[in-house]
Specification:
This protein is an alpha+beta fold and about 140 residues long. It is about 30% helix and about 15% strand.
């Protein structure tokens, strides 16, 4: 699992205009993905290192017939601390996403199916649904 310290070392302070432009970009999501999963925005402001794994996970959802399980896209980039902690969230470097937040509230039992989660794990993500305090909506890159 990646840490805020690793992200800070690799990318610098999030939100810093001097460094942010080197690793945060607008990803124009391929039209076929958006057509099959209209909750996915056409453009996602995210870390360049997130694009390939995220596209892989989304294409796996398509290939495995799991697109209907994706109900909402709840964000990627937001500079903030982890809930209830003083360290920065991995969202601060746009290396994490949240999906289906209304059904997977922080601290509650996750509702995402194992095959859905597996699509993301195989693409290189860790899932917050298995943490001591579950965050079932949250996926973040497993390594940098």
């Amino acid at each position: 699992m990646i840490t805020a310290a690793q992200c800070l070392k690799k990318y610098g302070l999030p939100g810093d205009p001097k460094t942010e432009g080197r690793f945060i970009r607008i990803w124009n999501v391929p039209a076929d993905i958006v057509a099959l999963m209209p909750v996915i925005p056409q453009r996602i402001y995210c870390n360049v290192d997130l694009v390939r794994p995220l596209e892989t996970a989304l294409r796996q959802l398509i290939a495995r017939g799991l697109t209907k399980e994706l109900k909402t896209w709840d964000g990627c980039y937001q500079v903030r601390n982890k809930r209830g902690q003083s360290s920065l969230s991995i969202h601060s470097w746009a290396l994490a996403i949240d999906v289906n937040a209304a059904w997977n509230a922080f601290g509650k039992a996750p509702t995402l199916s194992p095959p859905f989660v597996q699509c993301f794990r195989e693409a290189g993500f860790d899932w917050g649904g298995v943490w001591a305090k579950p965050d079932g909506m949250h996926f973040q890159l497993a390594s940098l």
